Amino acid sequence: MAKQTKMIFITSNEDLVHQIASKQVEDTHIIDLDDPKQVTSMINNNSINWTFLAGLSELDSKNDQIYKRALDSHQDDQEKQRKLLRKSIDLICKICGDRAIGFNYDVLSCSSCKAFFHRYAHQDLKKLKCSSRNQNQCKIVNGERSKCHRCRLNRCFAMGMRTDFILSQEEIQRRKGFEKNPNISSTNSTCISQTFNNNDKNIFSESLTAEDLIVIDTIQSDFLSIFQNQFEGSKELIDLTDRVSALISWSESHNKLALLIIKYCRLINEFENLNADDRFILIKYNLLSLFSVILCYNCKSRNQSSSSYQEYDGVENKRQFYSVCDPSSDMYTKVINLMISSMETLNQDLVLVSLLTIILLFSKGLSMNENEPLLNDSLSVYRAQSYYTKILWNYLIDKQGEMKTYKQFTRMLTEIFQRQTCATIFREFINIQIKASQTIDQITPLIQTVLHIS
Amino acid sequence: MAKQTKMIFITSNEDLVHQIASKQVEDTHIIDLDDPKQVTSMINNNSINWTFLAGLSELDSKNDQIYKRALDSHQDDQEKQRKLLRKSIDLICKICGDRAIGFNYDVLSCSSCKAFFHRYAHQDLKKLKCSSRNQNQCKIVNGERSKCHRCRLNRCFAMGMRTDFILSQEEIQRRKGFEKNPNISSTNSTCISQTFNNNDKNIFSESLTAEDLIVIDTIQSDFLSIFQNQFEGSKELIDLTDRVSALISWSESHNKLALLIIKYCRLINEFENLNADDRFILIKYNLLSLFSVILCYNCKSRNQSSSSYQEYDGVENKRQFYSVCDPSSDMYTKVINLMISSMETLNQDLVLVSLLTIILLFSKGLSMNENEPLLNDSLSVYRAQSYYTKILWNYLIDKQGEMKTYKQFTRMLTEIFQRQTCATIFREFINIQIKASQTIDQITPLIQTVLHIS
DNA sequence: AGGTGTTCACATAGTTCA
DNA sequence: TGAACTATGTGAACACCT
Ligand SMILES: [Zn+2]
Ligand SMILES: [Zn+2]
């Protein structure tokens, strides 16, 4: 087929319009720009053969997109229908009643309320005064929403807008990509590095090496393959019929977990190379602390609240366990709160959890028990711990920059102390329970060791 | 200015083309679609006065966008340049080394790794086997990244990809807008409602009324204007020079907070209408619990970790306070962990915090102190508490649906109990400290009352 | 000039299809 | 499987108004 000449005329010349509109011209499409409905419907119904536009070549992608949009037709129909439906039915700004554009700062709201909250969210509500005489009771409606700052901002908060949905400067920088490598641009990095350099013989100065990456890869892989069922499978609940069954049930489930932890530890060369006595001591005095690290990791949703509620049955079961053992004890509060605190610090970071487990394992004297025997080769243990601590440090530096890592480390150290305190009192608590209920024969030997019974 | 008639003719009719092209027609633009270069250059150089298109009215936004895009021209150049620049330099997929498209699931990665993780993140790593003989040590590089599932998924985790960044079904539904009003579409709502209806005389069945909204508005406004400085101002730290100064300093700062709380309570009509004795009793026995609710709200960044670290100085100061008072006590752990737990439950929701404060205020017997005297008008207190509980319930239902609200309520009730336990032992702790240090004369009367000293 | 509200640009979720 | 798409919700910028 011979190529036809195709042209577009865009005109406001009345003579020409009249001339063309009056007689039927073949192979010609007419769009009356003054009749928006016609424009819309013609484009949407694809009654014009727009596809010939696709024959155009060498147009850059931007223009391609324009034509593409014009060419897609029935999809836009759907979309338009849906959008119209939505907008006319339920997309109402909860603050001013205007047409909402979506969720802004966690509240269904319009663009102006979004902008307003973004501007004023950090202002002091106390310093703003209600402009009208109706004391802080101005109606915020579409027409006069910008009359009174005080009442508008207040309504934003009242409808649930959250200042914490406003990105911090740090978060903006990361998004913008100026800081895709957060470890490069940290301005105060030298300062902090030096602090550590002075104390710690420069072990914290490098970044992650290729070798470190392989170690992380391996560790994390081992950790996940050993414990994944623990995280994703349905948690088995403790039998709560009475104290005896509860204790035995607890002992059995923790015996399983302990075996998994030991299996994991034995994959670490530095641990496996120690002599048997030292391995035994490290397990005996540190395993209880490891429980809480591993149990606080779970791989559910990011949303804090929903994740905790998904775990609710498990938590409730745990609470009742302590309650069955000793209703007057506040052991439960201590344990569960430590776990919640750790969940925040560990922040669902699998690498962090798997490394921290090893670091805790190699802790000497962590149990703060005066009876803890000396290690034969405490130097190796110290070296191993330093090595993994360094890897963890570098991993976090690489991931989130030095400033944040510094703070996170400080807090993790605090938590390790809490973890230890908690383990000690838990050990006493459970020992008392076991003695009182005379279930010692039914506790597995491994758990007896961990509880320092034998 | 009178509106001109504007039209577009698209034609392949040679007669018409010839006719128009041969004579100069005013107010008309001609585009020859067979000469792509002409089309491109005309569009890009904007030599056609497209702007008259802006005169079009009532076109829907989609079409506006098409025209708008046609009007923009040189900006795309810039953008393309910048994107190329970035992508060629520093955007390397941390998993396979391919060109990254940005952060996916918290790791700088390419589109294929993004899709891969999205597909397999919830698979069991243990069940996947490493395909090659190199045991779980396959190199994941651009060319052969899809060889071994096991090692690829593992590397995703190792580089820090997070399953919790994958939206849950619930979150997707909310975004898509099918559930802009979460209270409408809840399938199991009747079931839960009935549970509550049976127990609670149907008070939980309605949705938020206009009147409720005004109450929320007022309450939340009062709360914010009274406590905002507490949240946003620089927290004043406790003087830690020695135990005596620490206790006095603690007493003074909490005296201020107590006065603010009382000020807030007196804005509640139901409280103000009680007789003086009842008001006194409620304050005396409940104020200590209220401290922890109010202090656990802060309005910093959403990011969990960064927000906690911003608060770190305050937390550390608090820890040292307990340490100065009694280094052997684990009071600190209890208090701080309760606060961290509450921060999660209250989820930075200002309305929730302000209502919960009132609900706790109206609690009778919350202090679980056998000596707590009976109220004169306990019915009014009960009614007030029911009223605000109902409003809170409806607010949460409206915001997040019934299922989640049910779970959140259950957990909040648990926390209220913990809060009470904590308050009681805190009262004992601080009383012991005050007696031991003989600082009772320097403790303000209000704090003495709250501590049940007087 | 500073406040307001619309629109643009962008990041990163999910989704689709060859 | 992975490139290319859509969708949502951020911040930023602009044109307008007082
Ligand atoms: Zn609005
Ligand atoms: Zn990749």
What does this structure look like?
Two copies of one chain form a homodimer. The first copy, chain A, has 20 helices and four strands. Helices cover about 60% and strands about 5% of the residues of chain A. The N terminus of chain A is likely disordered. In chain A, a hairpin with a 2-residue loop joins strand 3 and strand 4. Chain A has a two-stranded antiparallel ribbon. Chain A starts with 6 loop residues before the first strand and ends with a helix. By secondary structure, the first copy, chain A, is mostly helical. Chains A and B meet through strand 1, helix 1, strand 2, helix 2 and helix 3 of A and strand 1, helix 1, strand 2, helix 2 and helix 3 of B. The complex binds zinc ion (2 copies). The site of one zinc ion has 8 residues of chain B, from helix 5. Chain B binds a DNA duplex (18 and 18 nucleotides) through strand 3, helix 5 and helix 7.
Mean pLDDT of chain A: 72
CATH superfamily of the domain at 210-300 and 312-451 in chain A: Retinoid X Receptor
User: SSE order of chain A in H/E notation?
Assistant: EHEHHHEEHHHHHHHHHHHHHHHH
Instruction: Estimate the strand proportion of chain A.
Output: under 5%
Q: Count of helices of chain A?
A: 20
Q: What kind of assembly state do the chains in view correspond to?
A: homodimer
Distance between the termini of chain A: 96 Å
What is the level 1 CATH name of the domain at 210-300 and 312-451 in chain A? Mainly Alpha
